[in-house]
Design brief:
heterodimer, A: about 325 residues, globular, disordered N terminus, B: about 260 residues, mainly alpha, Helix Hairpins, 434 Repressor (Amino-terminal Domain), binds adenosine-5'-diphosphate, binds magnesium ion
């Protein structure tokens, strides 16, 4: 079992990004969906590109943003010529809005902001710049902004993931990928907790709870939260509520058998037990050679192989998120 | 730690308070699979000792929740539901959904399950007609109905239900050569798929299915048709259909050249 205190302490203090950017309700209907996952090659780009096309084809205005800083390849998957206008320019004084960086694609309603080729400038953004970028993303004239995040668990990646309205995690049914995904979830969880902690000034309460770790039999983050709720009901409740809207989506990609697709349910159950929060398992995308063929042809799967069994599944996943989010927005507008 | 600090039985099985018997059973099996020794999902966060204890809790939860009398008493003593509530497959979410639909005056979407077995190429719904200066909510609603979004996701869309994973059987499925019709039948039974379900989804008659599953080659149709069946059959069971079909076809050719 890992030492939870250590994990908590490792994080640098950072101002809350969440308080200012999360929650589409206050921002109108614009939604940011971020696709992440611990490892490279697990299908993040496949999911981001094809979810975006599905939304655009359904009539929504969509902007895709390649935030895989260092491994940007979204433009290739969409058959868009590499441009000299990339995300790197976002802080240049000549650029007034992000919209100027958006390139049209073959899909009507869908544009693309290409990833920075030179990772050094953007890969580790200082807080203020990250905030600025997030605000600019929210201002894009679009209904949906989809972020293709890179591999790994840098603060950059975690912060974009957490600031999004919908965070989608893709994994492969393989031990290394699942381990990486848990590392990602764990880092995101502590990053989120850090933000909440800052918001409610709860650091010392968490520390004092952790000091009684053995006595309280705290083995997992879920145990920590449960004990906080008992020891300090008010703050515990606030933390619980903030964590409750930390709901991420899970896609298991490249499944070959029934057992592979069941992995998603296992991860969901384990996360609930270990972290104490819900993961929404969207389902699995089976292994289909059409995927790499479409990559090779530099055409998105949905356009190149519309008969692929992945296409209806992707439509269903997107439909599920759209309706769920619409409900959420409506609910908060109705004050429910 | 006191009792109420633990997960309750519903949380242990990852189900809602209103879950019906079928959901309880499916979730029980999934929970067991999540913590068994070969599971990918648990080993990196829980050590074997912890997993063993969790498995015991899962059994305990299932023993109580699968028995309506025990469940009622448990609910009562934990203040989970008023005792007169019935366990319908109905959630607060459905109520909310209905409410939201009414408020938005959106047409209630038809619930149409997509048939994964359908061979026809997927056709896209036409993009929503553009209106003068459509507002965001209109577009969202258009996207929503165009995506036929009211279908709840179950995680997988095959015929197979959750079943207890038997590693020995999984190993056999991976390695058995050649794949015979009799063996396919044993996989179908292991996956808990009834013959009628296969007949329905493959649109084949009882006689053909029986012939296929008993290796009665004289009653089977021409080889190209058999191949089609076996592909659909193994796909419906979520198997590695390419590999199993190839193996079966070799077997068929050796018996019926
Ligand atoms: N469902 C799938 N079936 C077959 N191949 C896939 C599938 N998903 C991904 N791949 C292959 O894996 C490669 C990596 O996928 P990609 O989406 O680029 O991953 P990431 O963005 O996470 O690095 C793709 O180029 C493709 O060849
Ligand atoms: Mg990628």
């Amino acid at each position: 079992m890992e030492n939870t205190t250590e994990n908590l302490n490792k994080l640098e203090a950072d101002e809350s990004l969440l308080g200012k950017t999360q929650g589409s309700a206050s921002q109108g209907l614009k939604q940011i969906w971020a696709v992440g996952g611990g490892k490279g090659g697990v299908g993040k780009t496949l999911v981001t590109a094809n979810f975006a096309i599905t939304l655009a084809k359904a009539g929504a205005r969509v902007v895709l943003v390649d935030l895989d800083l260092g491994g940007a390849n979204l433009h290739t998957c969409l058959g868009v010529e590499a441009s000299d206008k990339t995300l790197t320019d976002v802080f240049s004084p000549n650029i007034k809005s992000l919209q100027e960086l958006a390139l049209p694609t073959i899909v009507p309603n869908l544009s693309l902001i290409s990833g920075a080729q030179d990772a050094m400038n953007v890969a580790n953004l200082p807080h203020a710049q990250k905030q600025k970028l997030l605000n600019k993303l929210r201002q894009l004239p679009a209904d949906y902004i989809l972020l293709d995040l890179g591999a790994g668990t840098s603060f950059n990646t975690l912060d974009f993931f957490l600031a999004a309205d919908v965070g989608i995690l893709t994994v492969l049914p393989e031990p290394t990928s699942i381990e990486n995904a848990y590392r990602f979830i764990k880092s995101a969880f502590y990053r989120k907790l850090k933000n909440i902690e800052y918001l409610y000034d709860a650091r010392s309460l968490i520390d004092s709870t952790m000091n009684r770790k053995n006595e309280l039999k705290i083995k997992s983050p879920a145990d920590l939260i449960r004990n906080l709720e008992t020891l300090y009901p008010e703050v515990g409740m606030k933390i619980r509520n903030s964590l409750n809207d930390f709901e991420m989506k899970l896609v298991v990609n490249q499944t070959r058998t029934e057992i592979d697709s069941e992995v998603g349910f296992g991860v969901r159950n384990v996360c609930k037990k270990y972290f104490g929060f819900n993961i929404d398992y969207l389902g699995c995308l089976e292994y289909d050679s059409a995927v790499w063929q479409s990559v090779r042809r530099k055409r998105p799967l949905i356009l190149e192989f519309p008969a692929s069994p992945l296409v209806p599944t992707i439509q269903k996943m997107v439909g599920h998120i759209v309706s769920e989010q619409a409900e959420k927005i409506k609910r908060s507008q109705l004050g429910l | 730690m006191s009792q109420e600090k633990k997960q309750n039985y519903y949380e242990i099985l990852d189900i809602s308070l209103s879950a019906n018997a079928e959901i309880i059973r499916t979730s029980y099996i999934r929970a067991k699979n999540a913590y068994n020794r070969d599971s990918l999902a648990a080993y990196s966060l829980f050590d074997p000792e912890e997993s063993k204890q969790i498995l015991e809790e899962i059994e305990e939860a299932y023993t109580v929740l699968s028995d309506s009398e025990k469940r009622r008493k448990y609910d009562e003593s934990h203040g989970l539901l008023s005792s007169d509530s019935s366990y319908e497959d109905y959630t607060a979410r459905d109520a909310l959904r209905a409410h939201v639909a009414a408020v938005m005056q959106a047409p209630t979407n038809q619930i149409t399950e997509h048939d994964e077995m359908a061979e026809a190429p997927v056709s896209y719904p036409a993009p929503a007609p553009s209106r003068p200066d459509p507002s965001a909510i209109d577009r969202l609603q258009a996207a929503q109905s165009s995506l036929n979004a009211s279908v709840p996701l179950k995680g997988n869309y095959s015929l197979t239900k959750s079943h207890v994973v038997d590693e020995a059987m999984e190993e056999k499925i991976r390695n058995t050569e050649p794949v015979t019709g009799v063996f396919l039948k044993s996989i179908r039974e292991y996956r808990q798929v009834r013959p009628e379900e296969i007949m329905d989804s493959l649109k084949i008659s009882k006689n053909y299915l029986a012939a296929l599953e008993s290796d009665d080659f004289s009653k089977l149709p021409a080889t190209v048709f058999v191949r089609g069946f076996v592909i659909q059959y193994t796909k419906a069971l979520k198997l590695d259909h390419e590999k199993l079909t190839a193996s079966y076809m070799q077997f068929l050719k050796s018996k019926r050249p």
